[in-house]
What does this fold into?
Amino acid sequence: MPASIIARNARILLPMLSFVAILLAVFWLQPRAMSYVGLNLLLNLALPIAFATIAQMFVITVNDLDLSLGAYVGFVACVAATWLAEQPLLGMAALAGGVLVYAAVGALIHLRNLPSIVVTLGMSFVWLGLAILVLPTPGGKAPDWLRALMTWKTPLVPFTIYALLALAVVVHLGLMRSAQGAVLRGVGGNPRSVERAGWSLLKAKMIMFAFAGLFGMFSGLSLVGLTTSGDANIALRYTLLSIAGVILGGGEFTGGRISPIGAVIGAMTLTLAGSFLSFLRLDPDWQIGAQGAILILVLALRVIINRAEARGL
Amino acid sequence: MNTIVHRAILATGFILAATASQADTSDKRIALSNNYAGNSWRQAMLKSWDKVTRKAVEDKIVAAADAFTTAENQVTEQAAQIQNMILQGYNAIVVNAASPDALNGAVKEACDAGIVVVSFDGIVTEPCAWRIAVDFKQMGKDEVLYLAKKMPEGGNLLEIRGLAGVFVDDEISKGIHEGVAENPQFKIVGSVHGDWAQDVAQKAVAGVLPSLPEIKAVVTQGGDGYGAAQAFKAANRPTPLIIMGNRQDELAWWKEQKDANGYETMSVSIAPGVSTLAFWVAQQILDGKDVPKDLTVPFLRIDQDTLEANLETTEKGGVANTEYSLEDAQKVIGGM
It folds into this structure.
């Protein structure tokens, strides 16, 4: 099926091309960015967003949406800046508890057949409340090891780029190339046949939500490593950014059609788009609109490609 | 390796600039990182920045003074904004921060690149940055001290607080209570939250008034004095001395009362033009001046005799403002 191979490549080619286009535009506007320090400054905040995007992708794979992700990342950040630094055992227990709660939310959504948007919207208030309980006013201090990791001066290119690459490759291998990954994606694509084949849908949903919790945790940890301290409201924007990142990276809301590599690239593109607009010296009132315009542009190209794909098949 | 050399060059450059006092700042570029522009105070702040820095650029005191506001009031966005400013090669960054702590990583990056960071209003705790803080507690205390002078016999006070759970509200209230503790002739008989908005304050005061004894004075936080006056009027109670907060509607009401019956009070708040103070402080640091890391902003206080002049220069719906000059900044740096 050569046509489908081209189409599948087009799915990943488009995010890559948009990323390269925007990267070149940034370099052209600000040649200073073309250095080790420059790349680090441009992309280091993309890492927590990429983790959040991957977390969101796990949920989207099973046809759900997680609207609590930003608040959850904020909760992790608050735990990391307080308990994890002072009482590591308590901190780790709290973080593990967060992942278990995510699995439980997945179970709840599946068992009661509830709309995930409603459940996770509710959970977002729970996470925000917990974050404020842990850290009532902004502050705290990132554990030294976390700070050291995030400011690690790796050879050749900054640590962030290695981390982004590793993230994309690991999740790609796990979800796209393994047998278990295929089943998990099948839960989003064709749940009935997955169930008939003897797999537990409940287990699959719990696993996917737990993974979302795990990668959301990585997002919060890396964020605190960068900011050095926590704030309950630190990552509220990540909810929508992560959804945009998944879609920008070639994923779809339904059918288990996702691309981990694309999602990581999508997160990087979103981060760069912000810098690009700021380097353009665009009026802030227009910036949100311009960010939206970039998204619409990429998605419009996607629709065109999808049509070509349909015709090809 | 590359970075070490890079940093070393930046660092030596910085040291050279710092040691050569009276260094020329005409080739220096200063950026304003602002997290929010959605109320009249912030709008006035940006306008003041624009007015003063435009003149400074024209006079060739600095090469550029660009203002950036994040599209959304979010910590992560402002951190990215500051990192972008580092890349754009600004020599100093003046920041009104979305969070006192969560920007520290980005601020540290800027300091490491040899950039001067001056925070004001919303200050940052990273030790390498300068802070121009507002002593809100003193502001609250000043209100009571004024009353103590005005009415030595004391009396009952009504306190109007701001938005619950916000740091500023806690600080001003703490100052008021401290002032009352030192002047026991005063007694706070009621306390309501006016959320710094006239309509909310009016409703809150109207709700609590029937249960209160005679009120001699109302201590406020700004943006609530006019609403309180309306509530007293509607309840047919004698108008007490209400401390004002520099809003145009408050000043206009005060003027009206002053003309009609010689009403006396005072008004105090922070001038949005504090952004221009931060600008001059940054310029002075770039100039090689030795500036202490922690500075305090003076309040903008309006008294009986300065009311008319201030009312005239305040836009309808705006806040009384003052812009700072280089000399003002030097005075603040020198400890007044």
User: Anything to note?
Assistant: The first helix of chain B runs from residue 2 to 19. The CA atoms of residues 5 and 224 of chain B lie 56 Å apart. DSSP finds twelve helices and twelve strands in chain B.
